[in-house]
Design a protein that fits this description.
- About 35% of the residues lie in helices and about 25% in strands.
- The strands form two sheets. Strands 1-4-5-6-7-9-8 form a seven-stranded mixed beta sheet, sandwiched between helices.
- It has a single domain, classed as Aminopeptidase.
- It is an alpha+beta fold.
- The chain is globular, with a radius of gyration of 17 Å.
- Strand 6 (about 130-140), helix 7 (about 150-160) and strand 7 (about 165-170) form a beta-alpha-beta unit.
- InterPro entries: Acyl_CoA_acyltransferase, GNAT_dom.
- Pfam families: Acetyltransf_1.
């Protein structure tokens, strides 16, 4: 059955599926994800994700914060979304992690994440002690234009509520994902041009080569 007619199932991922989720992320998330593919080191684009980046994402599978879309006939993962718990001190924790790692790309990604936490300030804006924050949303290309991304976000919205979060937020790195946020009545709280971002030493460590170079943070009560 082709992608047009296949039935899609949505559910929380379990730890035993980490290797399959890794393969899905490497296949259709990291190659297209704006921040990952825009990182520049010594004037060279470093396209592949750091192993630390992958392990960080997979760690939230063990916390029950990853949802997957599965093509029923073949059991193939065709969509992935992963969330984490964000608190007022999360930005500082990310910066501590950046200082501790010896992997430059991962360090710069953590610094960028900390910057996004500071500028978005979702906990402060929504007066909440914690936020259910979606930071991975990806759909396999052959299965796009079927609202799978939106259904995964709706699934995560319900998951956050079931875990007693009052607020769900997300960082979107492309216009399609941002439109999902708008359709779900999420409020845009910050927008960052990746090409204008500088780290603490004034370096431009990200250089988006396409018209899409914006990271936007959206949030809403649930």
């Amino acid at each position: 059955m082709n992608g047009e007619y296949a039935k899609i199932l949505y559910r929380i991922a379990v730890p035993s599926e980490c290797e399959r989720i890794r393969e899905a992320l490497l296949s259709f998330y990291y190659p297209e994800e704006l921040v990952n593919r825009s990182y520049v080191e010594e004037n060279q684009l470093i396209a592949g994700p750091a192993e630390e980046h992958i392990q960080y994402a997979l760690s939230f599978v063990h916390q029950g914060m990853a949802a997957i879309a599965i093509e029923e006939d073949h059991g193939t993962i065709v969509g992935v979304t992963i969330a984490r718990c964000v608190k007022p001190g999360t930005a500082d924790e990310l910066l501590t992690g950046a200082s501790a790692t010896g992997v430059r790309k991962w360090a710069e990604l953590l610094k960028l994440s900390a910057h996004l936490e500071h500028t978005g300030d979702v906990c402060g804006r929504f007066r909440s002690r914690r936020t259910y924050h979606v930071f991975v949303l990806a759909v396999e290309p052959r299965f796009r234009r079927r609202a799978i991304g939106q259904k995964l976000m709706e699934f995560q919205m319900a998951r956050g509520k079931s875990l007693r979060f009052r607020v769900v937020s997300a960082d979107f790195t492309n216009e399609v994902a941002a439109r999902i946020g708008v359709r779900m009545d999420m409020r845009c709280v910050s927008v960052l041009s990746l090409n204008q971002y500088q780290n603490e030493t004034g370096e431009h460590v990200f250089a988006a080569s396409t018209a899409n170079h914006v990271v936007s943070t959206y949030a809403r009560y649930v």
